[in-house]
Amino acid sequence: MPRRAGVPVSGRELFSEEHSAEVVAASFEGTPDPRLKQVMTSLVRHLHAFVKDVELTEEEWGTAVDFLTRTGQACDEVRQEFILLSDVLGVSMLVETINHRTGGQSTESTVLGPFHMVASPQRELGADIALDGKGEPCLVTGQVTGPDGEPLAGAVVDVWQANEDGFYDVQQPGVQPEYNLRGLFTADDQGRFWFRSILPRYYPIPDDGPVGRLLAATGRHPNRPAHVHFIVTAPGHRTVTTHLFVDDSPYLDSDAVFGVKESLVRAFPVVDDPARAAEVGLPNPFRTVHFDVALLRE
Ligand code: BEZ
Ligand code: FE
Q1: Nearest CA to ligand 1 atom 5
Q2: Residue 54 and residue 89 in one domain
Q3: Cβ of 167 less than 6 Å from ligand 1
Q4: Quick one: which of 83, 123, 236, 294 has the most CB atoms within 10 Å?
Q5: Could you list the residue range(s) of the whole structural domain that residue 194 is in?
Q6: Same domain flag for 36 and 179
Q7: Which ligand places an atom closest to the C-alpha of 206?
Q8: Does residue 140 share a domain with residue 56?
């Protein structure tokens, strides 16, 4: 006997445009891990809603598959084009922000980025991390505290930044000195840290791959505003991965990866004081910035 349209073959509803999301979501009913089931079900619902919203053509679907394939092919030991894609879609920042809510009690976090080195060199407080002799000299000072302002003696402050030409040392092996503009500092007994560096400048994220072509096709620029990266750790406290941004940098309001938070922007005033310059070991005049970092207790 012929079946009536819409009546399931064996109790399970068949695929239809109208109920596509429900039918596919139901296929994950038996997922043993409840979190995986929740994530897959929600992903399917949103993905199907998106395809219906734009009425995706077969050609566009093919283009998307090709784009994701090329994104994967652009990944290697040092390059992670999928994270870059997540960055320019604001997903990295959203995940970071959801997972590091501060309740207004600690320094806000932002994206890690691809240029952090796990084995950065230990440096003495006051050391000059600008090894290539380029850029405008800058004294960076700050203090690491807990949420109630208590100094965190011995906190570890990991810093890195791009050079005057807008590149990190790891992007230019053999051009920049190894470990240029990066270092690990141990805060003093008052949680204070200080080091010599340069005024950071804005730079483009790697834009010679599929993500760069996506930015170009959508009329977006690839630039990030001038910043210094920080990872600050102290025993018994939550680590903060963040940036210090320069208040008059271009692209503060259009960061290609949406990393800017108002609370992380600081002035870098010029100090014109030969005696002070001699004291801190920088040529006169020089820039300064102060960046206090507060960590939540674990
Ligand atoms: C960075 O600031 O180093 C960065 C962050 C995200 C993507 C590319 C670079
Ligand atoms: Fe950066």
Answers
A1: 113
A2: no
A3: no
A4: 294
A5: 82-294
A6: no
A7: 1
A8: no
For the segment 202-227, the average pLDDT, to the nearest whole number, is 97
- Whether ligand 1 lies within 6 angstroms of the CB of 111 is answered as yes
At 73-114, the pLDDT tens digits run 999 988 999 999 999 999 999 999 999 988 888 999 999 999
pLDDT at 1: 42
Band of pLDDT at residue 5, cut at 50, 70 and 90: low
The per-residue pLDDT for range 8-51, each reduced to its tens digit, is 556 789 999 999 999 999 999 999 999 999 999 999 999 999 99
CATH of the domain at 244: 2.60.130.10
The 10s digit of each residue's pLDDT in 124-152 is 999 999 999 999 999 999 999 999 999 99
> Is the same domain home to 281 and 185?
yes
C-alpha distances out from residue 65 to 58, 59, 68, 70, 109, Å: 11, 10, 5, 9, 33
41 and 92 co-located in one domain: no
60 vs 231: CA distance, rounded Å: 40
Q: Is 205 in the pocket of ligand 1 (CB under 6 A)?
A: yes
d(CA 218, CA 215): 5
Is the CB of residue 147 below 6 angstroms from any atom belonging to ligand 1?
no
Is there a domain that residue 70 lies in? no
Domain match, 152 and 290 both: yes
Residues 56 and 129 in one domain: no
Mean pLDDT of the chain: 95
Mutate to test the pocket of ligand 1, among 84, 205, 223, 251 (most ligand atoms within 8 A of CB): 205
